[in-house]
Amino acid sequence: MVDHLYYTLQLADNALVIGHRLGEWCGHGPVLEQDIAITNMALDHIGQARSLYQHAAKLFNELPQDEKANQFQSVALSLKISNGDALEEDDLPYLRDVWDYRNVLLTEQPNGHWGNTIARSFFYDIFQQLYYTELQKSSDEQLAAIAEKSLKEVAYHVRWSSEWVIRLGDGTAESKKKIQTAINDIWSYTGELFNVSEAEQAMIDKGIAVDTASIKDKWLQRVNEILNEATLTLPEDNWMHEGGKNTQHSEHLGYILAELQYVQRAYPNMEW
Amino acid sequence: MTVRDFQQAFDEKIDKEIAIEPRDWMPDNYRKTLIRQISQHAHSEIIGMLPEGNWITRAPSLRRKAVLLAKVQDEAGHGLYLYSAAETLGISRDEMIEQLHSGKAKYSSIFNYPTTSWADMGAIGWLVDGAAIMNQVALCRTSYGPYARAMVRICKEESFHQRQGYEILLNMSKGTEIQRKMVQESINRWWWPSLMMFGPTDDDSPNTEQSMRWRIKRFTNDELRQRFIDVTVEQCKILGMTLPDPELKWNEERGHYDYGPINWDEFWNVVKGNGPCNKERIATRVKAHEEGAWVRDAALAYSEKQKKRNNKTDHQAA
Ligand SMILES: [Fe+2]
Ligand SMILES: [Fe+2]
User: Fold this and answer.
1) Which residues surround ligand 2, an ion (CB under 5 A)?
2) Which chain A residues have a beta carbon less than 8 Å from that of B291?
3) Are A30 and B298 in contact (CB under 8 A)?
4) How is domain A2-266 classified at the architecture level of CATH?
């Protein structure tokens, strides 16, 4: 069922895109220890993405032939599909076009300075922890297992990004200003985490997806607890961007994919 | 004890292969040589993250991306171990980093070459990490304890680096014509600089004798280079590729491969700062360091605040 595929891609694309972004820091961190830490987190997300794309490929391969044919616009992917090839782990991330990606806009936002990256991770990590905790109960056993396996990593991410929010908020005057601005700037991308796409709703109804409404209060509460300790506040304006879950992206994702997919697109059908 | 007694005790330890530890007396020059060598080695790990980091966003599969991230992350860890080992000799990490950024300290010249194709991730792992292993295995028994121990940890991880690099090339060499072309082209670019990693020939390496005496070095540059060539030629055959040296030939009498002349002009030119990426590499590190300054300041300020707060609560509790 195509909604099941779309929903799994939503999860997989989030993991890949944020992992890709965090990986961009590797070699450029503010201090060696943090270079190592942020790369660790990139690795965790990429690892989760791999499991999710394996699952997505399997869901795709199980679709009836006529549904497979018109699923994606990418020429490279369409060729593979019309050849009757079964999709594998790398096909969906490496051959799909921007307008078939389903990650939330939050994950594709540029790294900016350390504070921007921390703010993005902070909102995302707390969300992911609550979300994956619930996802363990999914009636899709594969998704439940991936959630369970990832939660240890996610707990570490939450601790790491929360500690950095506190450190920057309660550090110097400069760092406080920088992290507060970063939080204000990224805030409008957090609403989408709780929006429910059509595919997601269908999966909530089947007990496969998590109903985000059930975790929203907790998320806000935890966010505020940390911000209080950091002597920071949330912006008043609650207007929110949306679109990623429904394949409407910012300009940033195109550049992410241009790099990510370059080798596979330029030299198709080869093993690396 | 007089200085001479100290010197004698030190010499005896060296002769008996007893490790020198941070608190032991050591000759000034021994200390200086070690600081120079270890910090240079640490810098090489850190600068070495950049040419490979260059392909993290473009790795051709999720598995390769993860392996490459893990590999570059390992190099950061190696840098960390080595900076710590150097710190036991009385120099701070900040000072060492300052020396790197100002150009006063050197690092391995190989990292001043650009990575222009994915095959370079294979060639670097196979040849550059391979050459590094030759050097580093020899250093596991170096006379200075903290350095030797750092090397033991590092060597364990390096063999994974070489394997993943070789595996990239092996995989590509079993692929299409264009992939084999990429592999050959990459080997052609990395072969000679890899041989240069062992440093100048023994005749041209004035510090070697003293370093051997102090057992900082256990083998000469040429010995290690020869050893590297002998094993690499065989590995290259399995790839079905060639090494770009027409004079490479097995010498029955010596029991080693003979090889053609190394372009030492190129080597010294890159050492002097004129390699294709010298400026970029340092500029990238300086940028990361400068842009990270406010972050480090914040972390420090926060930890000091925390200390004060803890002191206060301790008092109250008392
Ligand atoms: Fe290393
Ligand atoms: Fe290495």
Assistant:
1) B 129, 158, 161
2) 30, 113-114
3) no
4) Up-down Bundle (1.20)
